[in-house]
Amino acid sequence: MSVVVKNLTKIYGEQHAVDDVSFEAKPGQVLGFLGPNGAGKTTTMKIVTCFIPQTAGEVTVCGNDVLKNPMEVRRSIGYLPEHNPLYKDLYVKEYLSFVARLHGVSNIKQRVDEMVQMTGLEREQKKVIGALSKGYRQRVGLAQAMLHDPEVLILDEPTSGLDPNQLAEIRNLIKQLGQKKTVIFSTHIMQEVQALCDRVVIINRGKIVADDPIEALQSRVKGESVVTVEFAEKADKKLLASIPKVQKVNDLGKNRWQLIAAADVDVRPEVHKFLVQHHLTLLEMHKEVISVEDIFQKLTNGL
Questions:
Q1: Under 8 Å CB-to-CB from 301, ≥6 apart: which residues?
Q2: With CB atoms 3.0 to 4.6 Å apart as the test, which of 139, 158, 216, 218 could cross-link to 212 if both were Cys?
């Protein structure tokens, strides 16, 4: 059920759209596949889904090579592309029934009803697709990707156009699917990555720049530990700088201070001792946590 990409390369003229890329997506996890525009992300997905051939390298899906056994690969994949292609003049259930017939689904009516319920399309199922909002069209696209119960789901921007309520529903659905299936999830919304993904692959200019669990990603780019504090009284910058392990102090104004230490150093216990010693009243203290967005920018900017 896994997707294995080895030394994948795609060349257009003199441009290496994908340059010696290797990674693996396994069942039971949601893999976030990230990259800025033009990084080679969509090209990689198109190769994995047999839309275009690679120049070099090997891709297997559930043990089937994308060049040698493309039909078997297609049968095992459910794909929601970035630009969701739908027949807008068909009704929702009519379209899903058509897709089910293409996949050779045995009990079409039952499976279509299951997908309508799973993706929250009950109220819209009798509408023409062209009359649906963008968010509901995304749901139809997600439903068609899952109709044939594929072992691998490749979802390119699946939450685009969803309102907050729809977002929560589809997010929970993707999490559930990720417990049993191999899910490759691409998005530009970093909050979605933190909420959904177990592991992240970041591609930039055709090359992999990170392939780690989200927790491990933070240690790759951490350069410093930052604690922000706010006191009820005025504090002296020089005194704050004397706190053990604190390397730098920034005045944020209104009795708020930023205390900077080396990476993986927590200065909060020392700050508490400092408060007691100098009779200061603490109003707020928190340790800043590096976000996936910060990681993404640090790994892709200026490379």
A1: none
A2: 216
Report the pLDDT value the prediction gives residue 112, as an integer from 0 to 100.
96
Tens-place pLDDT, residues 41-62: 989 999 999 999 999 999 999 9
- Rounded Cα distance, 92 and 95, in Å: 5
CA–CA separation, 36 vs 13, rounded Å? Answer: 21
Nearby residues of 52 by Cβ (< 8 Å), 6 or more positions away: 10, 43, 46
Q: What is the DSSP letter of 97?
A: H
Gap between the Cα atoms of 206 and 50, Å rounded: 19
Domain 222-297 bears CATH identifier 3.30.70.100: yes
Kind and range of the H or E run holding 214: helix 214-221
Q: Which of 216, 217, 199 is nearest to 2 (CA)?
A: 199
Report whether 289 contacts 222 (CB < 8 A).
no
CATH number of 3-219: 3.40.50.300
Q: Using 70 as the pLDDT threshold, list the residues of the chain that sit under it.
A: 1, 218-223, 289-290, 302-303
Cα(262)–Cα(280) distance, integer angstroms: 25
Copy the structure tokens of residue 139.
Answer: 């749901």
pLDDT at 168: 84
Question: pTM of the prediction?
Answer: 0.77
Q: pLDDT tens across 8-33, in order?
A: 999 999 899 999 999 999 998 899 99
Q: How far apart are the C-alpha atoms of 134 and 143, rounded to whole Å?
A: 14
Q: Structural domain boundaries of the chain? A: 3-219, 222-297
pLDDT for res 187: 80
Give the Cα separation of 9 and 54 in Å (integer).
Answer: 6
